[in-house]
Specification:
- Pfam families: ABC1.
- The protein is 65% helix and 6% strand.
- By secondary structure, the protein is α+β, with helices and mostly antiparallel strands.
- Among the domains are: 17-93, no CATH class; 341-527, no CATH class; 532-557, no CATH class; 579-647.
- The longest helix is centred in the last third of the chain and has 34 residues, at 529-562.
- The protein is extended and about 115 Å long.
- The model has no long low-confidence stretch (mean pLDDT 76).
Length: 648
Amino acid sequence: MDFGVTVVFAVTVVVTLAGFSMIARRLLDLRFGMVRTLLAGALALVIGGPLMQAFAGGMDPGDPGLTPLWFLLLGVVCALLAGLVFLVVAEVLVPQGTFPGPLEAARGIRRRVVRSRRYLAITRIFVRHGLGPYLRGRDPGLGGPSGRARLARSLREALDEGGVTFVKLGQILSTRSDLLAPEFVEELRLLQDRVTAAPWAEIEPVLVAELGGPVSETFEEFDGEPLAAASIAQVYRARLRTGEEVVVKVQRPGIAAVVEQDLDIVARLARSLERRTRWGRAFGVAELSLGFAAALREELDFRVEAANMAAVAAASAGEPVRVPAPRPELSGRRVLVMERLDGVPFGGAVPEGADGRELARTLFETLLRQIMLHGIFHADPHPGNIMLLSDGRLALLDFGSVGRLDASLRAALQRLLLAMDRGDVLGVGDALLEVVARPDEIDERGLERELGRFMARHLTAGTVPDVQMFGHLFRIVSAHGLAVPPEVAAVFRALATVEGTLARLAPGFDVVAEARAFSTRHIAERSTPDRLRETVVQEALGLLPMMRRLPRRVERIVGAAENGRFGVNVRLFADERDRRHVTGLLHQVLLTILAATTGIMAVLLLGTDGGPAVTSTVSLLQLLGYNLLAVSAILGLRVLVVVLRSGR
């Protein structure tokens, strides 16, 4: 075979395979991967040749009519049918997407190698600190407070050595006194202020790259000794050329890539713990890891934090808790310049002369106002994000994680809080169903009984409510198949986090009692004569256009009824989703009828004797029957594909 023939053969094969791929996608209305399409096309080519030779062997060589074209068409259809059968069987046995494509597989292998190296490093760290049995799903027991203290210290040291992501995870866990024993909470709190600072030689290139020039061009003075070192960034004192005192938050170099690797490891560890351990399933650690990953990725972009600070400051104007003003024109993805506040970070101890209970009440009321009134709130108010100012006030820092609520959710949360305050179980159930994503079917009576038991346990006289009631409420919601929207989950997470901060400011602080007092004051503020008059005026202005059109509409309705022309128009399937569903069902039924009809016609034609002879053994009616049988098979495959796709 010379080169020209080889080229023509190769081009023919490529064109044939491309044409087969287009026809298969069109007939089955399904996209296939390159590998299985090539295999199906190759099968069609292999089968097509012998089929055409077999058909040609039964023809009269001297027949000049259209008979050869008929048999050629029948051979092509049969070869195509074989390829389609292969594709459908492959889709049934190995659905599309079960295995990655070649390029995706190559990328996956590379990611797996990188992840495996980091995973082995993290595993060695945890094993070195005595945490190996817990990674393998075993629970050797803690053996009392001393055992818990040793395990807590090992966990803190392992997280600290693991790097930024694990330090951040430990900081978040240190606020969850509802999940962890006191020994773990106290030990993990050390991660909030004991993070090793990166040297200035590593930080300066990040600052220069984000500023677009030397540090001296932007700042008149810049202190290279960090004020604070956190897991993601470090904070420095500086002075602008205008004389304004600022603080500069600079992200640690190369942290984004490390965080992505570690988040993947955290997710895998969480899934393993939830699958293998009882406490992992009880706490829902896989879901917690997803929320942690989303919040941490948002914190890596300081432009988001600058926008969050500006939004919270604008919404909270006049509140007793300060929010530093950002300088967005000097900030970037890895650098944030903001106003410098005169104070010290809150380390857990109330300074002398300060009223810890009053500070706690102010902080809690500020958070409630942000949630209930303004709709934008600090979602991570742990002690490391709070500053005690020199004038005795509090300031909120680190707005990388901020929650937002629309007006309808805020109103539903207010109704939920008021119903809890009144002890109204029905009102709590109705408000809760407005807050969460309600399924089509729900046992409302069972939900009411669960909520009644919840309120009797946590909210009756003589009980001391604590942050564990949020976990109980989440378990009730999950047990009844209710999905909590992410923004509402952020509210409960913020309340659970601030509870630990409030306990350090004022031990024994009653969160529920303060929330009740806040709701009472808020209702009183909204119930003044001026506010009620304003509300009535606003509602009346909204109803005025409808009231002006109402007499004319009533007159038209009454006139139509008097003249016998009154009717009601109802549009069936007005929803686009209903129309698509019904159209899909009709399409499937029509294909099924066509497949069955052509199959029956093919069988009848194949069983009919007589008719014009095409060859010595095949009549024209039988030839038509063979073609109809192939068409029926193709339609049947299309129906099967529709059924498989709708099942997924």
